[in-house]
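Q: Given only this backbone (382 positions), what sequence would you predict?
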């Protein structure tokens, strides 16, 4: 054995290496195990989501957040939704009424606005129409109609423009059976027609200051004094030798062949696209003969080939001469459309109308009140 190893053994024996060494080794092992246990048992628990109060300057103040349940209870769902069957659509509460939206143009009378719109089709090839609108006053609405209408002007041939008596009129204003009133009325209207229906040809006669607006020509039989009343000149105009002229621009519901029809007492004359196409009064002033006539004083005019993409000028005369009973009704028929018939086999034709309005109640020849609606562009005031 070398001297170094001998001295090391001597040293351990001197300090009691036998028992001492064992004790040191045991203490070291215990210390290692204790350290491991302390670190494992004191590990921080899994952190929960917390939010620190934004308004506090202390970092130690925190608020735990409790997550809400994702799925609401069934009683809450039952209050929000109603389902009749497992496959039924969800039923929601009614929406609140929406405010009305103006599409521009003149204002609509309140009673008329409730029924404007598109309704059921009428016959093969016909346009759209229904019967949900307001009843149109016999001679027209006082207010312009939204979407357009025909504008009516009222003339009294017995007076001049300034309201003085017309020296050319020799009839008796106080005699309701004054036939010269009728003859004078026809004479004035013939002169207007010879002037190509130019408004300036009427400038010398008295004109009511108020215009009316029609969506159809459907005037039930009535006393002739109702016309001056409607135009607000009942105290100014005697109910004879007067004329109402309605005009505008219209387009048919569909392209096709059309004919205007109707009747009037005393006069109903239609000028379309610069040409007289219907003269359906009790006296024929234009010389145009009807294509055919139906019972109830209904005459049918010339055939017109019309394009639904085009607007045409239309002028309509209604007039009363002697000052007795009066009526006027303007209808139309379209080739290819089969109309219902009366017991006598007379076709029931639709009223010519430019809005979804109803005719005033009263006596009129057979007619269809809910036929197709024509488009209209109101003519400017002249």
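A: Predicted residues:
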């Amino acid at each position: 054995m070398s001297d170094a190893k001998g001295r090391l053994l001597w040293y351990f024996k001197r300090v009691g290496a036998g028992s001492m060494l064992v004790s040191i080794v045991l203490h070291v092992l215990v210390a290692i195990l204790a350290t491991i246990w302390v670190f494992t048992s004191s590990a921080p628990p899994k952190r929960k989501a917390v939010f620190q109060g934004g308004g506090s300057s202390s970092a130690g103040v925190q608020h735990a957040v409790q997550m809400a349940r994702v799925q609401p209870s069934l009683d809450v769902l039952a209050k929000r939704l109603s389902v009749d069957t497992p496959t039924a659509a969800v039923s929601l509460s009614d929406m609140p009424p929406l405010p009305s939206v103006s599409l521009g143009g003149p204002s609509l009378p309140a009673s008329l606005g409730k029924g404007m719109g598109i309704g059921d089709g009428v016959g093969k090839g016909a346009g759209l129409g229904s019967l949900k609108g307001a009843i149109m006053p016999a001679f027209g609405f006082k207010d312009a109609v939204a979407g357009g209408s025909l504008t009516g002007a009222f003339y009294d041939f017995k007076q001049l423009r300034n309201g003085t008596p017309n020296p050319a009129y020799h009839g008796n204003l106080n005699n309701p059976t004054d036939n010269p009133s009728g003859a004078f009325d026809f004479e004035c209207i013939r002169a207007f027609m010879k002037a190509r229906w130019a408004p300036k040809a009427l400038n010398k006669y008295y004109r009511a200051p108020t215009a009316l607006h029609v969506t159809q020509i459907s005037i039930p039989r009535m006393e002739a004094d109702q016309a001056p009343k409607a135009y607000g000149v009942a105290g100014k105009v005697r109910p004879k030798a007067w004329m109402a002229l309605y005009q505008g621009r219209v387009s048919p519901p569909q392209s096709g062949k059309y004919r205007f029809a109707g009747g009037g007492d005393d006069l109903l004359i239609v000028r379309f696209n610069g040409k007289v196409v219907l003269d359906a009064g009790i006296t024929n002033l234009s010389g145009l003969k009807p294509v055919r006539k139906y019972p109830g004083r209904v005459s049918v005019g010339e055939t017109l080939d019309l394009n639904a993409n085009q607007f045409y000028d239309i002028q309509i005369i209604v007039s009363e001469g002697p000052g007795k009973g009066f009526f006027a009704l303007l209808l139309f028929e379209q080739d290819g459309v089969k109309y219902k018939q009366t017991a006598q086999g007379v076709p029931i034709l639709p009223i010519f109308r430019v809005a979804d309005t109803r005719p005033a109640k009263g006596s009129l020849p057979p007619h269809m009140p809910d036929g197709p609606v024509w488009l209209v562009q109101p003519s400017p005031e002249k």
